[in-house]
Design a protein that fits this description.
The protein has 362 residues and is an alpha+beta fold. 26% of the residues lie in helices and 20% in strands.
């Protein structure tokens, strides 16, 4: 096998890319319906036009990934399906540095352990977004490579440490303008990419495209404009132990953005044990969540929710109680996080409840 050749294989239900120097896990869950997990970037700031972005990133003052993040930031998920966890942990690590906080390398394995439900068969972007905001991530020092299940690390220690390193609410990036704006304003961006036979083939330092629905997640930490080809190019941080390369929207991200919710990580919460640039040592509080349920016997969707979702709710830190929720359909739910609440009628999946918790508590 040549250095730039690779094969995509499936072994035990897990997808891998096999190269000359080893086998690397993929593991991004395909989403038939893209979940709008958080508000878009455009809802929080006025987006710059294409020409404004070009002027900014070509100015002498613009400095992002190339100046701030050297080879020591590269990661290796090895053969696990933890790509979305690694992308999220790397993005939060870098967002904290860009915000003036001390560097703490966060664990992609711990991130993955929060969402994989005890099986190494991958995860999606949305549930990693939620975990980053609500749980936070432990450091690589506390949860090193291979700690993809809580039994493989000191859970009490890791969970306590993770509360120090959480993200403020991420911003959804539905299109190229949003994606370019996030990077131009120095916010790391998490995306889905499709790994195929061209995964090791470069045109200069730009990856040759593999279009598809998206079977892998990584992150970007810089942007440049290629005047000869008239396109933005984004610096991709790999979790496959390889140097940085550049990708484009049209050749790498346009097809995957239809199925996965890309997002930007704007900043980390204040670390009560760290050197925070504002001098404020108070972290954002972790809000408790309470789910009130109205149900009835003989309801198909009530029974299905009780069988499928209730066990996951009870295994989480969300309090579940039976009570009265206004409305006409069943099942009905009222989710309370702090002083905010949300009412939902009909079947509500565990993943969507978790996302609602993160949004209400953000």
């Amino acid at each position: 096998m040549r250095a730039d050749e690779c094969d995509i294989i499936v072994d035990g239900g897990q997808e891998y890319v096999e190269t000359e120097d080893g086998r690397y896990g993929l593991g991004l869950h395909f989403e038939e319906v893209k979940t709008q997990a958080f508000p878009t970037l455009a809802s929080s700031q006025e987006l710059m036009s294409r020409s404004e972005i070009i002027d900014l990133i070509e100015s002498d003052e613009f400095k992002f990934g190339r100046e701030h993040f050297d080879a020591s930031y590269l990661t290796n998920q090895n053969g696990y399906g933890s790509c979305a966890g690694y992308a999220a942990a790397s993005a939060l690590t870098k967002a904290r540095v860009m915000g003036g906080q001390e560097r703490v390398d966060l664990s992609g394995d711990y991130a993955y352990s929060l969402v994989n439900r005890g099986r190494d068969n991958g995860s999606g972007l949305a549930n990693n977004m939620r975990a980053m905001v609500r749980n936070g991530y432990a450091s690589k020092e506390t949860v090193p490579l291979g700690g993809i299940y809580p039994r493989k690390y000191n859970k009490a220690k890791a969970d306590a440490e993770a509360r120090r390193f959480r993200a403020h609410e991420p911003y959804a990036l539905p299109d190229e303008q949003s994606f370019a704006n996030a990077l131009a304003t120095r916010k790391p961006a998490v995306h889905a990419i499709h790994v195929g036979r061209n995964w090791r083939r470069l045109d200069g330092d730009v990856l040759i495209g593999n279009k598809g629905v998206g079977n892998h997640s990584e992150h970007c930490d810089d942007i440049r404009y290629n005047r000869r080809k008239g396109r933005f190019e984004f610096r991709n941080g790999s979790s496959h132990k390889r140097p940085w390369f550049w990708i484009t929207w049209e050749d790498h991200l346009a097809s995957t953005s239809r199925h996965h919710q890309f997002y930007a990580v704007p900043s980390g919460t204040q670390d009560p044990e760290g050197d925070n640039p504002s001098g404020d040592s108070q972290p954002a509080p972790v809000q408790t969540a309470k789910l009130i349920r109205t149900s009835r016997g003989g309801c198909v969707w009530c029974d299905r929710w009780n069988a499928r979702v209730e066990p996951e709710i009870r295994a989480s830190d969300i309090e579940l109680v039976d009570g009265t929720v206004e409305g006409s359909g069943v099942p009905r739910f009222e989710l309370r996080v702090g002083d905010r609440s949300l009412v939902h009628e009909g079947y509500w999946s565990f993943e969507d409840i978790e996302l609602a918790v993160a949004r209400l508590g953000g």
